[in-house]
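comment on this one:
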Amino acid sequence: MKVFKYILILLIVFLISGYFLLQNHSVQNRLFENTVRELFQTDEIFMNDALSVAVCGSRAPLPSPNRAETCLLVQAGTSKFIIDTGRGSADNLQRWRVDYSDLEAVILSHLHSDHISDLHEVQFQSWLGGRKTPLSVIGPIGTASTAQGFEQAFKLDSIYRSEHHGAILPIEAYGYDVVEFEGDAKLIFENEDTRITAFKVDHAPVDPAYAFKIEYKDRSIVVSGDTVSLDVMTEYSKGVDVLFHDALAKPLIQEMEKISEEIGNNIVSKVLFDIQDYHANTVEVADIARRAEVDLLVFYHLIPAPRNYISEQMFLRGVDEIFTNYHVSEDGTLVSLPAGSDEILIDLID
């Protein structure tokens, strides 16, 4: 009992001392200084000489805690790209302290709001991060008018900030440098080590919509954007290391549709019915991965994103019977493919 009494007294003394110590301005200043240093310091989350993908947004428009809408941050060697910029994804990029100064381009798969909502925020943060020319944006027909709309909406904001901050935010670097592409397939980026090919998919009535094959040295990935199950997805995914594919879980969506109808929410029920015909479902995606013989399937743009163990089991119903090497992504999922290796490394960004 005496030992316990002494430990309790020491604990009380420690807590009281800690409380008064935290009231000291010098201690407060030092702790805040450490926090700010960590906040403002860019961080390198990618491996050298690798093809890497960080999922900066893993959900579809249906809300889900701690998840942003669709976004992938891709690094191929020293070249960095963002594929789609759904709502909340720019917050993840800021939280991870991503260095925007060397961003090659934002690439858009199609012009649904959940793939473009944070385009301005990426433009602004990369401008603030030191970009000296307008943000390069590569996308399908319609991208130029979309970017022009963002630019016009924030035109006064850009003028105010440039006038206030001067040379660090040069007005000539504000805005977008858009390159549009069209056709069934198009090489949209190439350098010594990296090729990115856009190929058309089916997301009707959204037209055009594209998927992408990214090749870096001897490693490769395919990113679906949004699409129904297509042979062209299998063809372009043949033998790639990783397939990132959007996926709709019919058991979950159909249950949500039924409940919405039962409670009289006919608008939500109609939307949930409609979205089932322009996304591949989880079983179809697993079959694409099987036929393409990919090494790893990563489900992203999750419809709906699982919230717990039960909903994840429902999301994956039937998948294991077709293809077993898969990963259900979350915001912060990081897949790394070192060049000259068969390794596929999966991590989670803090």
User: Anything to note?
Assistant: The chain has two domains: 1-38, 45-348. The radius of gyration is 23 Å. The first helix runs from residue 2 to 22. DSSP finds twelve helices and 15 strands in the chain.
